């Protein structure tokens, strides 16, 4: 392990590099119209550092200049009944906890707008969504008419919106300077007693514990464990109200309020940092073995002449295929998001198909990128009269 600059969260100078990976697509949600363009997409290097003092993980090679988010970017998950059910439960809890009836909600990085629309519909609330990837012609369903949408980035200039709830889901992991970002949000809150904060990010604790190397992607430059997420908020002047590890611990959430005095506090996460340190130390060796196992498996499938597909065309699939550098064994990627149909995955260029496309070319083997969707996928395949062998990545 080599030394690195001070931790962006706690400023400790005891961090070190524990995982490196070169030439990965910089945008996993930017899908392409042609396979050649997808394969020649912009790429960047990953060099992950770990801070043993607070548990924060960050990519020391990250260059924000390589990224350019626009309306072509699509990483929506709400087409999955499993994810939608989770989101609806979350909306119901936030609505009850913060008495969101006729209130104002601001969503930073709203994506295509589905979560914000649900929050607005649940309590007849007003919404303001900010995201360069938002598509004005795409929204439909209850709640969308209650939202003012913007393709700009949120800034402290939007303090006049006076939010009762400020949310940001799966955005914070894209921010290279988390403290500066949170302090900007703190400055944008004129009445701390009024505004509650809800953030949600991937959980690095689960990633290193399970050796889930496919979850390491370039645009995720910041990875949080419970302790580091709480530390980022307290360092930025927020009082932490609640942390949780939902979605079978794949996600990490935090609720907070700005402290008017600028000195944040936290009830504590109960996280065992010593255990996280040990898991980080063993991650590099474990992921290398995992990749070798999958390379051998793919080679065997090729020799057997199997027809192989991946189910799930999101971040995990991009990581999986690019780390294994596979372009021939796995010929297609299945995704239930209809807006991804016919597009090509960045880096390796596999074509994305909808489940109904499988009738013309049914696979005998399917690699499932996320086990939380296993029941959902099995039911979908059964409805189509298919029974391929299912492998969890």
The CATH architecture of the largest domain can be named as 3-Layer(aba) Sandwich
CATH topology grouping of the largest domain: Rossmann fold
- Class of the largest domain, according to the CATH hierarchy? Alpha Beta
Spatial order of the strands in the main sheet? 6-5-4-7-8-11-10
Spans of 5+ residues with little confidence (pLDDT < 50)?
none
Query: Mind describing the biggest β-sheet?
Result: 7 strands, mixed
Q: Give the number of DSSP strands.
A: 16
| Alpha-beta content class | alpha/beta
What percentage of residues falls in helices of 4 or more residues?
25-40%
Mean pLDDT: 93
Amount of beta strand: 15-25%
Task: Please give the structural blueprint.
Elements: E1 16-25, H1 35-39, E2 43-50, E3 57-59, H2 81-97, E4 104-108, H3 114-123, E5 126-130, E6 147-150, E7 165-169, H4 178-187, E8 196-202, H5 204-210, E9 222-223, H6 226-235, E10 238-244, E11 251-258, H7 273-304, E12 308-311, H8 315-324, E13 330-334, E14 351-353, E15 365-368, H9 374-383, E16 389-392
Parallel strand pairs: 4-5, 4-7, 5-6, 7-8, 12-13, 12-15, 13-14, 15-16
Antiparallel strand pairs: 1-2, 2-3, 3-9, 8-11, 10-11
Describe this structure in words.
- The structure is a single chain.
- This protein has 393 residues and is an alpha/beta fold.
- The chain folds into 2 domains: 81-274, Rossmann fold (3-Layer(aba) Sandwich), CATH 3.40.50.150; 305-392, Rossmann fold.
- It is built from 9 helices and 16 strands.
- The strands form 3 sheets. It has a 7-stranded mixed beta sheet with strand order 6-5-4-7-8-11-10, sandwiched between helices. Strands 14-13-12-15-16 form a 5-stranded parallel beta sheet, with no helix packed on it. It has a 4-stranded antiparallel beta sheet with strand order 1-2-3-9, with helices on one face.
- Helix 2 packs across helix 3.
- It is globular and about 65 Å long.
- The mean pLDDT is 93.
């Amino acid at each position: 392990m080599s030394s690195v600059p001070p931790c962006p969260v706690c400023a400790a100078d005891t961090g070190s590099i524990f995982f490196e990976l070169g030439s990965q697509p910089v945008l996993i949600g930017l899908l392409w119209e042609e396979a050649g363009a997808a394969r020649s997409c912009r790429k960047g290097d990953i060099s992950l550092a770990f801070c043993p003092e607070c548990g924060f993980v960050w990519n020391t090679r990250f260059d924000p200049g390589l990224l350019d988010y626009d309306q072509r970017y699509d990483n929506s998950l709400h087409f999955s009944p499993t994810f939608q059910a989770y989101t609806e439960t979350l909306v119901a809890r936030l609505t009850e906890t913060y008495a969101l009836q006729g209130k104002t909600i601001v969503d930073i990085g709203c994506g295509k707008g589905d979560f914000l629309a649900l929050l607005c519909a649940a309590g007849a609330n007003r919404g303001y969504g900010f995201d360069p990837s938002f598509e004005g012609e795409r929204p439909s369903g209850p709640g969308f008419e209650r939202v003012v949408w913007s393709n700009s980035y949120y800034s402290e200039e939007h303090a006049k919106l006076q939010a009762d709830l400020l949310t940001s889901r799966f955005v914070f992991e894209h921010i290279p300077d988390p403290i500066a970002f949170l302090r900007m949000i703190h400055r944008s809150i004129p009445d701390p007693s009024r505004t509650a904060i809800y953030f949600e990010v991937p959980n690095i604790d689960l990633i290193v514990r399970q050796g889930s190397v496919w979850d390491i992607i370039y645009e995720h430059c910041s990875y949080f464990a419970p302790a580091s997420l709480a530390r980022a908020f307290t360092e930025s002047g927020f009082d932490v109200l609640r942390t949780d590890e939902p979605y079978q611990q794949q996600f990490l959430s935090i609720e907070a309020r700005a402290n008017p005095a600028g000195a944040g506090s936290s009830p504590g996460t109960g996280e065992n940092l010593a255990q996280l340190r040990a898991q980080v130390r063993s991650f590099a060796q474990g992921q290398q073995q995992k990749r070798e196992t999958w390379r051998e498996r793919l080679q065997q499938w090729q020799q057997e002449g199997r027809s192989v597909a991946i189910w799930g065309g999101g971040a995990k699939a991009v990581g999986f295929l690019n780390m294994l550098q596979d372009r021939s064994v796995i010929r297609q990627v299945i995704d239930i998001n209809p807006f991804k149909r016919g597009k090509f995955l960045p880096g390796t260029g596999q074509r994305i198909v909808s489940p109904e496309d499988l009738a013309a070319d049914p696979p005998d083997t399917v690699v499932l990128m996320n086990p939380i969707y296993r029941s959902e996928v099995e039911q979908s395949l059964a409805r189509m009269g298919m029974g391929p062998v299912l492998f969890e990545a």
